[in-house]
Amino acid sequence: MVSPGSSTPKNRLLLLWESLTPLSRLLAIALFAPLAVLNAWAFSEIFGYFQSLFVIVFVASLLSFLLNYPVSWLEARGVRRGQAAIFVFLVTLLLLLALGVTLLPLAIAQAQQLVARLPEWFDSGQRQLMMLDDRIEGLGWPISLDGVIAQINDRLKGQLQTIASTALNLTLNLAVFTFTRLLDVLLTVVSTFYLLQHSREVWGSLIEWLPTRIQQPFSNTVRLSFQNYFIGQLILATCMASGLISLFVFLKVPFGLLFGLTIGVMALVPFGGSVGIGLVTLLVALRDIGSAFQVLAVALIVQQIVENLIAPRVFGSVTGLNPFWIFISILMGARVGGLLGVVVAVPTAVVIKEALVVVRKVREDQDSMQSSSANDTPPQEPNRMPAESVIELNAPTQVDRC
Q1: How many CA atoms lie within 13 A of 159 on its CB side?
Q2: Do 121 and 287 form a contact (C-beta atoms < 8 A)?
Q3: Sequence spans of domains, the chain
Q4: Could you give the angle at which helices 81-139 and 178-207 cross, rounded to 10 degrees?
Q5: CB-facing half-sphere around the CA of 214: CA atoms within 13 A
Q6: Distance (Å, whole) CA 9 – CA 358
Q7: Is the CB of residue 336 less than 8 Å from the CB of residue 305?
C-alpha cells in the first residue's frame, strides 16, 4: 500500500481530475482548447519558417527508414551494415535514375500534350452538355442545363487559360529554381546515406530524453506505426499505378500513362486514390462520356482489388484507425503542415492513438488493483485446539493402525 504522502505528481493530478464535477471538467477542457490552438498555430509558423529544412530531413528520414529493411535483411545474412547500406543505397539510386530517365520524360510530355488539348476537350464537353440538354428537353423533363453550361463557359475557360499559360512557362520556372532544387536534392541524398548508416545512433540519441521505462515501448510503437502506414501505402500506390497504366494503355485511353501515374501517386495518401480517379474521370468526360464511364469502371475495379485483396494479404491492417479519424487527421495535417503535414498526419495519429490506449490500459490496471486490494480481507485463522487434545484425538487412530 502506498501512503498518501508518497503519491507522485501524476497520481495527484489524476485524483484532482477525478474530484472535479462534470461541469468543472468541461470548463477545464474549454480553457485548455485555446492554448492547444495557440500552440498549433505557433508550430505552424515555426514549420513555415524552417519548411525547406524540415522537408529535407523528413524525406531523408523516410527514405532511410524504408531502405533500412533491405539493409537489415543483408545484415542478418552476414553482410556488414556499412557495406549493406552502400549497396542498397547505390541500387536505389540507380533505380530512381532509371525511372527518372525513362518514365518521367514520358509523363511530362503527356502532361504538356494534355494542357495543349484541354481547350479542345473543353469545347467537346460543352457540346456534349448541349446535346444532353436537348435530349432532356425532348423527354419533357423539367430540367435545364443552360445555367450550368454558361457557368462552365465563363469559369472553366478562364481556369484552362491559366493552366495553359502556366504550362508554357514551365521551362522558365524550372530554369530559375534549378540551383535551389539541385542543392535540396543533394542535401537529401547525403542525409539519406548518413541516416542509413547511423540511424540507430541518431534514434537512440533522440529517445534517450524520454523516461527510461517508456523508451522501448515508444520506439516500438513509432516504428510499427510508420512501418505499417508507409509500406502499406507504397504497396497500394505501386499496385494501383502499375495496374491502371497497363489497363489504360491496353484500352487505348488517351494519356493513359499520365492518368495511371497520377492516380498512383495520389494513392500514397489515404483517400487520394479516390480523388485521383474522380479527377481523371472528369477530364476524360470532357472528351467522351462513354470513355469516362469505362475509365471509372476499370479504376474502381483495380482499386477494390488492391485495397481489399492485395494490400491486406501483403501487410495486414495498415493503420487500425477509423476512416473518419483518418480524414480528420489528414485535414489537420494539411492545415498545419501542408503537403508534408498530409503525409505525416496518419502515422502520427496512429502513434497518438496507441499512446492513449496504453495510458487507458495502465489506468484500468491501477483501478483494478486498488479495488482488489480494498475488497481483499486478511484470512481469519481457524480456532486451534490445544496440543493435548490433538494428541488425545489422534492417539486411538495411531493405535488402530498399529
Answers
A1: 7
A2: yes
A3: 214-364
A4: 120
A5: 11
A6: 19
A7: no
